[in-house]
Specification:
- By secondary structure, the chain is an alpha/beta fold.
- It has one domain: Luciferase-like domain (TIM Barrel, Alpha-Beta Barrel).
- It contains eleven helices and nine strands.
- An eight-stranded parallel barrel has the order 1-2-3-4-5-6-7-9, surrounded by eight helices.
- Helix 6 links the parallel strand 5 and strand 6.
- Helix 2 packs parallel to helix 3, helix 8 crosses helix 9 and helix 10 packs across helix 11.
- The chain starts with 9 loop residues before the first strand and ends in a 7-residue tail after the last helix.
- InterPro entries: Bact_Lucif_Oxidored, CmoO-like, Luciferase-like_dom, Luciferase-like_sf.
- This is Alkane 1-monooxygenase.
């Protein structure tokens, strides 16, 4: 480890991806297997991201999936990465996650985002509020209140939910989420795994404007996490080859043609029009792909460069067994302590 690098906690972000030829049930079964493996290996958190109307991702009903994973894991923290709050009422979110905390204890994080997590037509079918910053910040405050201590005389209550104090995280892919996280004194997770351009600016805004004295504050100092695309394999050649499935996924999403994950290809230029190739590079610029030692080195450098408190990594492979292998190789190289059976 270099003098400037840091071994911060590593967590997992999952959207329950589905590969070509795989049923939705099989995709969810693979997510369960990965969560169990992440729990055993010693990863810090396992977050599921809300996404709707996609042939690629099966993670639309995030709270239901987290309840399922809670039954099949033991120690790893579980959470939303995140709940897209404009799609839901704060009361209902408090009830869902308050119920999870009531059933399974202090194992849950509630990451909140203001993007719809889908295409415009599906967003219109889901939308309950605008997601504009002032409205969003107000609804986060409402949610925090519902999960806080019971208020005498309150006419609207989250039951179960009140008194559970489920930890809140603010998610963001721009400076907007950073502003809300700072104003409310919440920890902040930046989606650099798919929106890297404003990472530095968003972290600067968050740290500069952070209010530890906010009524809603949950951390005493700016606390940051960022997403990284990761794929680990025994050789660089295999890692690069397997990563073409993730690159094809990014190109499909950015060009409006989402589909289940494609098998890896020898050369992207053989299957993708030349003008679309830059989409994958832009979408996945924050990535660590290669052998275990190389990936560890890049993750350490990224964490140190941006002074991050935690990294959350996401991995896509056509073969789910190779996805689990990637997380296993990373855990071993990172020096994680496996959890006892």
């Amino acid at each position: 480890m270099s003098p400037t690098s840091r071994r911060v906690p590593l967590s997992v972000l999952d959207l329950a991806p589905r590969s070509q030829g795989m049923t939705p049930r099989e995709a969810l079964e693979e997510t369960t297997r990965l969560a169990q493996e992440a729990d055993r290996l010693g990863y810090h958190r396992y977050w599921m991201a809300e996404h709707h109307g996609s042939e690629t991702f099966m993670s639309s009903a995030t709270a239901l999936l987290l309840g399922h994973l809670a039954q099949h894991t033991r120690d790893i923290r579980l959470g939303s990465g995140g709940v897209m709050l404009p799609n839901h009422s704060p009361l209902m979110v408090a009830e869902y996650y308050g119920t999870l905390a009531t059933l399974y204890g202090d194992r849950f994080d509630l990451g909140l985002g203001r993007a719809p997590g889908t295409d415009p037509m599906t967003a219109a079918a889901l939308a309950r509020s605008s997601g504009h910053l002032p409205d969003f910040a107000s609804e986060v405050g409402q949610l925090r209140a519902y999960l806080g201590d019971p208020q005498p005389g309150a006419r609207v209550r989250a039951i179960p939910g009140e008194g559970t104090h489920v930890p809140l995280w603010m998610l963001g892919s721009s400076t907007g989420g950073a502003q809300v996280a700072a104003a409310l004194g919440l920890p902040f997770s930046f989606a650099s795994h798919f929106a890297p351009d404003q990472l530095r600016e968003a972290l600067l805004v968050y740290r500069d404007r952070f209010r530890a004295d906010a009524e809603t504050a949950q951390v005493a100092r700016p606390t940051t996490m960022a997403g990284v695309n990761v794929l680990v394999a025994p050789t660089q050649e295999e890692a690069d080859h397997l990563f073409t499935s993730a690159q094809l996924m990014a190109i499909r999403i950015r060009s409006g043609q989402p589909a289940p994950l494609d098998p890896p290809v020898e050369d992207l230029a053989d299957v993708v029009p030349t003008q679309l190739l830059p989409l994958a590079q832009a979408h996945q610029a924050v990535r660590a792909v290669g052998t275990p030692d190389l990936v560890v080195e890049r993750l350490e450098e990224f964490a140190a460069q941006h002074e991050l408190d935690e990294l959350i990594v996401t991995t896509y492979t056509y073969d789910p067994q190779l996805r689990r292998r990637s997380f296993r190789l990373l855990a071993e190289a990172w020096g994680m302590q496996p959890r006892a059976d």
